[in-house]
Amino acid sequence: MKAIICGAGIAGLALAQRLDAIGWEAHIVEHADGPREQGYMIDFFGPGADAMAAMGLSDKVEEIGYHVDELVYNDGQGRRTASLRYALFEKAVSAPVTSLLRPDLERILRESLPETVTISFRTSITDIDNRDDGVTVTLTDGRRLDADLLVGADGIHSTIRRMTFGPEEEYLRYLGMHTAAFVFDDPALAEELGAGFRLTDAPGKQVGLYGVAGGRVATFTVHTQTDPTLPADPRAKILDTYRDLGWKVPHVLANCPPSERIYYDQVAQIVMPRWSHKRVTVIGDAAYAVSLLAGQGASLAIAGAYVLAGQLDGAASIDGALAGYERAWGPVATHRQDTTVDGRKWLLPETMFQVRARRLALAAFRIPGVAAILGQGLVGRSSVDVIELAKPDRVAHTVA
């Protein structure tokens, strides 16, 4: 059996690894010139971490990841206004948390692929012939490839989703914010930050900093933005939006790289009534983007890929496997999206009243019993058994 996967990001790489493990041939096509360098730091835990453990990759995550001691909010003068020990957060979500850069997680998955998995960079799909018994795609280099399944793992602005299910605006739920991420060299600041995650504490906009390997500082920004249209010059937009923040922000802006080295996008979700049509399906952000505010996009992408591969491994038919994938994973993704929408004022308060409310909530994490309630409100239910969800309703050894 053969699958063509569009997208060499976290979801696509995880799926290719799992499909190869169950005896499928996987071919990844990716429009970018090579592995991406831009991306923000993620807190990795939950079902994706469980899937990585089942894939034998948890040691790699531990080796390359960071263990943040404390999250600290700072006002314009650099004074601590609120904080949260990560040990308390881990207790609240009932899971160990490893922080790592998104490109590093992609690298772990990419290096786990056997030589039998092909990745074609600088390649896009221009046409899809989607049938009940298979799919044929036409590539930008003129090749036509036949497969049993085409999987769109090409992110929130998915081409495969658009070509199969219709325009992006039918499925995009814009959350009223823009975000950016970049990395710059500054050994002194990286050492000063230590193992802490430092953030500004103002309404409507936020800058976060953390030191990473090699004396670098990883930065992410998020701000409210009524117009979802992306700026032509992300760097200029960042400099203009955050110039009134104090503390370390002026220094960060002075080190902001050119626009082509900045990750910049909307904060949005993708909400679809179904993920599959004939022999085309979508996974990860292409199907159920939860937004960076959820903090579990990478985890859900890997876990969703694990569930899809598990369903394909044991279902009596590909149609049955795709139905089982949506039935098993749909409620998990929907719950996480709803939790994010409900809690976005916590993650980016719009008024000083909401900022002060967040400070009080962070202090309440220290109160026994309260932390679990707050943790569930932030990340939703943590008791997702991804290994069990990957088991198909009907077990068979032949997929037709």
Break the fold down into its secondary structure elements and pairings:
Elements lengths: L1 E5 L3 H12 L3 E5 L11 E4 L2 H8 L3 H7 L5 E5 L5 E6 H8 L4 E4 H10 L6 E3 L4 E7 L2 E6 L4 E4 L1 E4 L6 H7 L6 E14 L1 H7 L2 E5 L4 E8 L3 E9 L9 H9 L6 H6 L8 E8 L5 E2 L2 E3 L2 H4 L8 H18 L3 H30 L4 H13 L5 H10 L6 H4 L11
Parallel strand pairs: 1-2, 1-11, 2-7, 4-13, 11-18
Antiparallel strand pairs: 3-6, 4-5, 8-9, 9-10, 12-15, 12-16, 13-14, 14-15, 17-18
Give the count of helical stretches. 15
Low-confidence stretches: 394-400
| Order of strands, widest sheet | 5-4-13-14-15-12-16
Terminal residue distance: 9 Å
Structural class: alpha/beta
Radius of gyration: 21 Å
Describe this structure in words.
With 400 residues, the protein is of the alpha/beta class. The protein is 38% helix and 26% strand. It contains 15 helices and 18 strands. The chain has helices at 10-21, 47-54, 58-64, 86-93, 102-111, 159-165, 187-193, 234-242, 249-254, 285-288, 297-314, 318-347, 352-364, 370-379, 386-389, and strands spanning 2-6, 25-29, 41-44, 70-74, 80-85, 98-101, 118-120, 125-131, 134-139, 144-147, 149-152, 172-185, 196-200, 205-212, 216-224, 263-270, 276-277, 280-282. The strands form four sheets. The protein has a seven-stranded mixed beta sheet with strand order 5-4-13-14-15-12-16, sandwiched between helices. Strands 7-2-1-11-18-17 form a six-stranded mixed beta sheet, with helices on both faces. Strands 8-9-10 form a three-stranded antiparallel beta sheet, with helices on one face. A hairpin with a 4-residue loop joins strand 9 (134-139) and strand 10. Helix 1 runs parallel beside helix 5, helix 2 packs across helix 11 and helix 11 (297-314) packs antiparallel against helix 12. The longest helix is centred in the C-terminal third of the chain and has 30 residues, at 318-347. It is globular. Mean pLDDT is 89; it is low at 394-400.
